[in-house]
Design brief:
Layout: H1 8-12, E1 21-23, E2 26-28, H2 30-44, E3 50-54, H3 58-70, E4 74-78, H4 83-93, E5 97-99, E6 110-112, E7 132-138, E8 146-151, H5 152-166, E9 173-176, H6 183-196, E10 199-202, H7 208-217, E11 222-225, H8 227-234, H9 237-242, E12 248-252, H10 258-268, E13 273-278, E14 282-286, E15 300-301, E16 306-310, E17 325-330, H11 342-348, E18 355-363, E19 369-374, E20 379-382, E21 385-388, H12 389-397, E22 402-412, E23 416-425, H13 429-439, E24 448-451, H14 465-470
Parallel strand pairs: 1-10, 3-4, 5-6, 9-10, 9-11, 11-12, 12-13, 23-24
Antiparallel strand pairs: 1-2, 7-8, 13-14, 14-15, 16-17, 17-18, 18-19, 20-21, 22-23
Helix pairs in contact: 2-3, 5-6, 8-10
Bound molecules: malonyl-coenzyme A and adenosine monophosphate.
């Protein structure tokens, strides 16, 4: 069973837990979860796909759990989504209804509310493990986000492999405040907890203070964060010190700067475990609880994972800790392709099961991996969110005051990369930032818009983005 801790027979037989999921002031027991989510399942059963506005709330938890009980694939929609992106996700996914939180604009779809106090004790047959669990939208270098189809089998395999690497057990209390529309917060954090059977505490936002309080008041043992979160934690010595009582701090979704790793060690007493993955592959590499946690390195292949490093021609490169190659991964946690996009799927996922990650890496002679960067300057990681330069450029070109635009990610101490848009045109930079926040999503907005007379281009007319990223 995918959500093993919610086995109705076991829960009815006494395996309850009064605070299985806590978000803000609301706690749900396992029997609340089974009863209310089964009631959700009854209301969505038979749908081919539903959209869930994935706010950090118990409504979202019940919506997701209900879909997994009924075997209805769900589409998590970013809580801060804007108009154009919302329309794209709804149209592309073919979602038939909104389940749970009501979006600002339903796009004409029916709304199915989640009733916190409704209960059903109907017993569902566990859906086939090859069936899709969800479709999650993620950005590419160009074009609109693509729907990543992930099976129930992949989710289960990934959580089990992480449980082995991190000695993650029902005794843990997992804490995080990350969005519930990405792999990190939703799949690892929430579904991981419901599979393993540990307590899950969501802090609403991933603030240092929220994490410190969850360590002190909820007895948090396992904390998840993206590097921006850890960098903010180490800037708040009191909050960091409160995490001394934790068992394990985990960082992922972007590169953890070595100075942040070192500060975590000195302030919390814990060397963070780093792990690497993507929406398409789920998590494939991690350092181990009882192994080497080396700053700047993301670890070894998880159970069932193989990796290979190749040069531009596809030939293997040596595992000497220095030679850079393109990283490919294979394993039971990989996605089943992009929805409605056979050609895009074939570009990254071979018939032989290898996924071309788009990341460049080195591997040392002990099998330890270090991510060096991305192949394309057009995929930006900002605060752990993956954003395509192309989608922001397309959005900005839809503004009447914009003639030409180039979007780049520039290094940023807080966010890892900061989205900067260079614009040729006649308009107010702040209104362009707001335009992107309203069209795409708030987290995709450029943090800066710089108006310029012209963009640097090569002889072919192509914008020199590497040069732009260095302009100051
Ligand atoms: C600002 N705000 C606006 C706005 N400008 N609202 C509307 N319009 C505008 N123009 C508001 C926001 O709504 C928010 O309000 C506040 O300003 C701060 O904005 P923010 O951009 O969200 O905050 P920031 O501090 O920059 O966020 C940092 C962060 C966030 C770390 C909290 O980036 C984050 O949650 N990152 C996690 C990403 C993640 O989970 N990635 C995993 C990908 S999975 P308010 O009131 O809401 O605060 C993956 C696989 C793997 O990568 O390996 O894990
Ligand atoms: P996403 O699709 O949002 O899941 O982003 C996946 C990408 O995030 C990967 O392809 C990497 O570029 C990056 N990433 C994830 N984890 C790490 C990590 N630990 N270190 C460096 N980059 C990472």
């Amino acid at each position: 069973m995918l959500l093993a801790s919610l086995n109705p027979a076991a829960v009815a037989g006494g395996a309850d837990l009064s605070d299985a999921v806590t978000i803000g002031d609301t706690a749900l027991s396992r029997s609340d979860l089974v009863g209310a989510a089964t009631s959700v399942a009854e209301r969505v059963g038979g749908a081919s796909r539903v959209a869930i506005l994935a706010t950090p709330s118990v409504t979202t938890v019940l919506a997701v759990t209900g879909c997994l009980i009924a075997g209805v694939p769900f589409v998590p929609v970013p809580a801060d989504v804007g108009a154009a992106e919302r329309t794209h996700i709804l149209t592309d996914s073919g979602a038939q209804a909104w389940l749970g939180e009501l979006p600002a604009d339903t796009g004409g779809l029916q709304h199915v509310p989640v009733r916190l106090h409704a209960r059903s004790w109907h017993r569902y047959v566990e859906p086939d493990s090859d069936a899709p669990a969800y479709i999650m939208y993620t950005s590419g270098t160009t074009g609109a986000p693509k729907g990543v189809q992930t099976s129930r089998r992949a989710v289960a395999a990934d959580i089990d492999a992480l449980a082995a690497a991190w000695q993650w057990t029902p005794e843990d209390t997992l804490v995080h405040g990350l969005p519930l529309f990405h792999v990190h917060g939703l799949v690892l954090g929430l579904l991981g907890s419901l599979r393993i059977g540990n307590r899950f505490v969501h802090t609403g936002k991933p603030t240092p203070d929220g994490y410190a309080q969850a360590a002190e008041k909820s007895g948090g043992t396992l904390f998840f964060g993206v590097p921006t979160v850890w960098s903010r934690v180490v800037s708040d010595a009191a909050a960091a010190t409160a995490l001394r009582s934790a068992r394990l701090l985990v960082s992922g979704s972007a590169a953890l700067p070595v100075p942040v790793f070192d500060r975590l060690v000195s302030l919390t007493g814990h060397a963070p475990v780093e792990r690497y993955g993507s929406t398409e592959s789920l998590i494939t590499l991690s350092t181990l609880v009882d192994g080497d946690r080396r700053p700047g390195w993301v670890g070894l292949p998880l159970d069932g994972v193989q990796t290979r490093l190749v040069d531009d021609g596809g030939a293997p490169v040596p595992h000497d800790g220095e030679t850079i190659g393109h990283l490919h991964v294979r394993g039971p946690m990989l996605f089943d392709g992009y929805l409605n996009r056979e050609a895009a799927t074939a570009e990254v996922l071979g018939d032989d099961g290898w996924y071309r990650t788009g990341d460049v890496a080195v591997i040392d002679d002990g099998g330890m991996h270090r991510i060096v960067g991305r192949e394309s300057v057009d995929l930006i990681k900002t605060g752990g969110h993956r954003v395509g330069a192309g989608e922001i450029e397309t959005a900005l070109l839809g503004h009447p005051g914009v003639d030409e635009v180039a979007v780049v990610g520039v290094p940023d101490d807080d966010l890892g990369q900061r989205i900067v848009a260079y614009v040729v045109g006649d308009t107010d930079p702040d209104s362009l930032i707001q335009f992107v926040a309203e069209q795409l999503s708030v987290h995709k907005r450029p943090r800066e818009v710089r108006l310029v007379g012209e963009l640097p281009r090569n002889a072919m007319g192509k914008v020199l983005k590497k040069e732009l990223a260095q302009w100051d």
